[in-house]
Design goal:
This protein has helices at about 20-30, 40-45, 50-70, 80-95, 105-120, 150-160, 205-215, 220-225, 235-240, 245-255, 260-280, 300-310, 320-330, 335-350, 355-365, 370-380, 395-400, 405-410, 430-435, 445-460; strands at about 5-10, 30-40, 75-80, 95-100, 125-130. It has a five-stranded parallel beta sheet with strand order 3-2-1-4-5, sandwiched between helices. The chain has 20 helices and five strands. Helix 1 (about 20-30) links the parallel strand 1 and strand 2. With about 450 residues, it is of the alpha/beta class. It has three domains: about 5-130, Rossmann fold, CATH 3.40.50.620; about 135-165 and about 205-280, Serine Threonine Protein Phosphatase 5, Tetratricopeptide repeat; about 300-460, Orthogonal Bundle (DNA Cyclobutane Dipyrimidine Photolyase, subunit A, domain 3), CATH 1.10.579. The termini are far apart. It binds flavin-adenine dinucleotide. The site of flavin-adenine dinucleotide has 28 residues, from helix 9, helix 11, helix 14 and helix 16. Flavin-adenine dinucleotide binds near residues 225, 234, 236, 265 and 366.
């Protein structure tokens, strides 16, 4: 009898069974597979395994394991150096191939190269699959004279016409060789410092959210997506980040559903791919200005105090403070609020975007190098925005996107007794009334902040 052919499927940011090209390819070519997840020590050492994402990840792994068990298999979890662990598992399983979803950050690309070399030196093959964690892979669409699109609108025109592969079926049966052992799964309950209202992770939770949103949110998305209190966006970002949902499948589903809401959502998914293709072409954009404006960001104790007031949600601008408190409480923030808080930090306070991006990356359950750093750069005017010096006025924006003050009331209890529109400008209340609120005065006047920013940018052309 010949020995069974075995392949390893290395899960990374693709923690699902549906529409999973590496899994389907491995199952088609082998008799047994080892579904493997490595808790990479380098990810932890880089500070990327924050409490919120570690807790969400624990849910994802538990859910993946349960779904594999329903199909006769199980998830093998190991920890340590990813390359060393994959080599060890491939050797224990006597696997000929390791299947993996293509990665796009500099860290993941280096890791993939190291893994390929290590496996090839032992006569094994690394098979990398595209369009697993993105709808349209970086590098697939390029303008005539560059390796990536630097402006969203032309990118989106091409993206909307790109051919997407058809989604793949979920496997029915999975056989895992007994001889390969894993560690106990990490438990969400063991993670400390998690946001009190962090949502549940995992493919089942992600698919349930899609069903609910398609039934009762998607059609209105285009009209309600900027309404802060309505909280009417899809909330799929963490699932997309961990790959518990497939972006290819989501685009197909939304297009089938049709209508302005679905179209607007698909456009947002294109933004995700857009930032990824920028980062893949310019990995240094995770830290360095994509289009430097020669900023000399404020430093020193006053700037540090302003940044801390921003982090704590105590800037004296209600909509900004509401958003910053939502971030800590839920590990998530509404997109309009992300735009306002990032603009406030970088332009009104003129504090380096990297300081804000690091804080977001710590708390966001969807915290993602491409989407986070490049959106921060977009807002700061050092990125791909074609109007880099635009400044959003937090009071005007609050009046527009939180007209009755419900969003502020939800997150800033000090202001619950203040009705709109005064709730967005509490500093205008009479002195005694204002003092009784126990809410801080503005860290800076809007006109002063705007003037400081304009002078800084004009001086540097
Ligand atoms: P929806 O409005 O329902 O959009 C659907 C999906 O489209 C999202 O889940 C997301 O995957 C994608 N999407 C929407 N807008 C964007 C965008 N501007 N850029 C990239 N993808 C987008 N998104 C992250 O996933 N991770 C981050 O770390 C992140 N950091 C951000 C930082 C700043 C300063 C800003 C302005 C935006 C950031 N975003 C980030 C983008 C966006 O705010 C979130 O994706 C969105 O708020 C998530 O909520 P949702 O799933 O309900 O979004």
């Amino acid at each position: 009898m010949t020995a069974p052919r075995v392949s390893v499927v290395l899960f990374t940011s693709d923690l699902r069974l549906h529409d999973h090209p590496p899994l389907c390819a491995a199952l088609a070519a082998a008799d047994e597979i080892v579904p493997l997840f490595v808790r990479d020590r380098a990810v932890e050492a880089a500070g990327f395994a924050t409490p919120n994402r570690t807790a969400f990840l624990a849910d994802c792994l538990a859910d993946l394991d349960a779904s594999l068990r329903e199909r006769g298999g199980r998830l093998v979890v190991r920890s340590g150096d990813l390359v060393a662990q994959v080599r060890a598992v491939a050797a224990e399983a006597d696997a000929g191939e390791v299947h993996l979803a293509a990665a796009h950050s500099a860290f993941a690309t280096r890791r993939e190269d190291r893994l390929r070399r290590a496996l090839e030196s032992e006569g094994r093959r690394l098979v990398v699959h595209d369009a697993v964690t993105v709808a349209v892979p970086p590098g697939e669409l390029t303008p005539a004279a560059s390796d990536h699109f630097a402006v969203f609108t032309p990118y989106h025109r091409h993206w909307a016409r790109a051919r997407l592969r058809a989604p793949l079926a979920t496997p029915r049966r999975v056989r895992v060789p007994d001889r390969v052992r894993g560690e106990p799964l990490p438990a969400r309950a063991d993670v400390t410092g998690v946001s009190p209202a962090l949502p549940a992770g995992g493919e089942c939770a992600g698919r349930a959210r899609v069903r609910a949103y398609w039934r009762a949110g998607l059609d209105a998305y285009d009209d309600t997506r900027d309404d802060l209190a309505a909280d009417a966006t899809s909330r799929l970002s963490a699932h997309l980040h961990f790959g518990t949902l497939s972006p290819v499948e989501l685009v197909h589903r939304a297009r089938r559903h049709g209508g302005p809401g679905a179209e607007a959502l698909v456009r947002q998914l294109a933004w995700r791919d857009f930032h990824l293709q920028v980062l893949a072409a310019r990995p240094d954009a995770a830290r360095a200005d994509y289009r430097a404006k020669d900023d000399r960001w404020r430093t020193g104790s006053a700037a540090r105090a302003d940044a801390e007031a921003w982090r704590q949600g105590r800037t004296g601008y209600p909509v900004i403070d509401a958003a910053m408190r939502q971030l800590r409480h839920e590990g998530w923030m509404h997109n309009r609020a992300r735009l306002l808080t990032a603009c406030f930090l970088t332009k009104t306070l003129y504090v380096d975007w990297r300081i804000g991006a690091a804080h977001f990356l710590y708390w966001l359950v969807d915290g993602d190098i491409a989407s986070n750093q490049l959106n921060w750069q977009w807002v700061a005017g050092t990125g791909t925005d074609t109007r880099p010096n635009r400044v959003l006025n937090p009071v005007a924006q609050a009046r527009r996107h939180d007209p009755d003050g419900s969003y502020v009331h939800r997150w800033v209890p000090e202001l619950r007794g203040v009705a709109a529109p005064a709730v967005h400008e509490p500093w205008k209340l009479p002195g005694a009334e204002r003092a009784a609120l126990g809410y801080p005065d503005p860290v800076v006047g809007l006109a002063e902040g705007l003037d400081r920013f304009r002078r800084a940018r004009e001086r540097r052309g």
